[in-house]
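Q: Here's a chain of 495 amino acids. Please give me its 3D structure as C-alpha cells.
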Amino acid sequence: MTTIELDTASAWVVFIIGVAAVLAQVVIAVTSLVMVPRNRRPQTALAWLLLIYILPIVGFLLFLLLGSRRLPKRRREKQTEINEYILNTTEGMDRVRKDPPWPPWLEPIVELNRTLGAMPLVGGNTAELYTDYAESIAAMTAAVREAERIVHVEFYILSLDEATADFFDALEDAVRRGLTVRVLYDHVASVRVPGYRVTKRRLIAMGVEFRAMLPVRPWRGQWQRPDLRNHRKFLILDGTTAFTGSQNMVDRGYHRKPLRSGDRLAWKELVVRFDGPIAAGIEALFATDWYAETDELLLRESVVAPEVDPEVGLDAQVVPSGPAFEGENNLRLFNSLLYAAQEQIQICSPYFVPDESMLYAITTAAQSGLDVQLFVSEIGDQTLVFHAQRSYYEELLRAGVRIWLYRSPTVLHAKHFTIDDQVAVIGSSNMDMRSFSLNLEVSVMVRGASVIRRLREVEQSYRDNSTELTLEQWMNRPAHMRAFDDLARVTATVQ
C-alpha cells in the first residue's frame, strides 16, 4: 500500500471516529433529556444535564451509576410490609395529652406523619438530653449494663476505639448475661473509619448478632447506588428505653488528622434518651432495618411502658424517612412545621443545604417577622457541603434570619429544631438534600414544655460559643470564595 493510500485510510478512520463520537454525544444528549428530568426536582435535573453536556461520557456514566435514588425493589417491599405491621402493633396512643395550649395546626401534621411513615403520636414519655460527647456514651453504656432482656444497637458509624471501648465491653457483658444483642452499622461509613477490621473482629469475638447495612460488595451480589446510606443512630433497651440523635459511636475527633493550626476537629452532638411508648416506635425502625438486611422479622413483644406523671409526660412521634419510602418524609414534616410557626424557629443543622421549598419556608417565616435563627459551624468537615451551605447565607441574612457560627475547631453536628414553644424535632436528619433523598434517617417530633425548656438552654449555649454573622461581614468575603461557594451549590443539587 502506498503512502497516499495509507494517509487516505488514516483520514477515513479519523473521520469515522469523529462522526461516531459526535453521534454518541447526540444520542447521550437526547437520551439524557428524556431520562434525567423524570421524577426529579428541576434544579437537580438541570445540574445533571449540565454535568452530562460538559463531560458527556463521564457525566452519563456517573448518572447511570448514581442517578437512581431508589433502593432495590425487594427492600422497598419490605418497608411496605413492616409499615402494615407497625400500624397494627402500636401502644401508647391513648396516653396522648391534648392539654392546652394544643396548637390547632399540629393535628394535621401528626396525621401527615402517620400517613407517610406509619408511626402514630404516643404519649406518656420522658426525655433527657445529653450535650456532652463522653457523657452521652457513658449514659448509653450504663443503660446497656442495666438492660434485662434485649439490646438493639444501630449506628451510621460504629467503631471500637478508646472512647467507645467501655460501650463494647458492656455489650459483651450483656451477651454473657444471656441477653439478646443485635447490632447494625452502615457498611460504607464504618469501613472508612480506621480500625474497621478490629471492630468487626471484636463483634465476632463477643458473640453478638450483627450486620452491615446497605453493603456495597458486588462480588457477593450486594449492590445498590453506593451513596444511598443508612444514617440512623439509636440504641434501644428492652423495648422501653431508646437513645437517638446526631452522635455516632466513635471517637469525638473521628480519628481525623490535626488542622494546619495544630488543632483537632471535635464534634458537638445532641443525644436524647426517651423512656416510654416512643421507644417501641424507634425499635420498629430497628426491626425494619434488621428485616431488610437479614430477612428475619423481629416480632414485637407486648411490653407496656411504666406510667409517668402527666405533668412531665411528653407526646412524641417517630418519623422515618429515606429512599425506602415513596415521599421525602422528613422534608414534608420540616416544611409543614416551618409554615405552622407563629413566633419563632430555631434550627441547628451541621449540613444546611435546603431545597427550594425549604428555603422559601424559612425565608418566608423570617420576612413575616418571626424570630428565625440558624446554628451552624464556623468550620466544615466536608468541603463541598460546607461551601454549598455558605452559598445560602446571603439570601437568609437578607430575609432576616440570624446566623450563628459555632467557633472552630468544634464541628456543631447536632440536628434539631424548635417551633415556637410547642414542638421540637430531634434526630439524625440534616437539613440538606442528601438527608431528604438519599439517606435513611430517623426524626422524632416531640411536644412538651420540659423538652422545649431544655432545648432553649442548649440553644443559648450555642450562642455563648458562637459568633453572629452579619450581612456586611458576609458581603466583604473574598470574591474567589463566593465563586467557590456558588460552584459547590450546583454540585450539591446533583442527587
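Q: Can you summarize the key feature?
A: The two ends are 54 Å apart (CA to CA).
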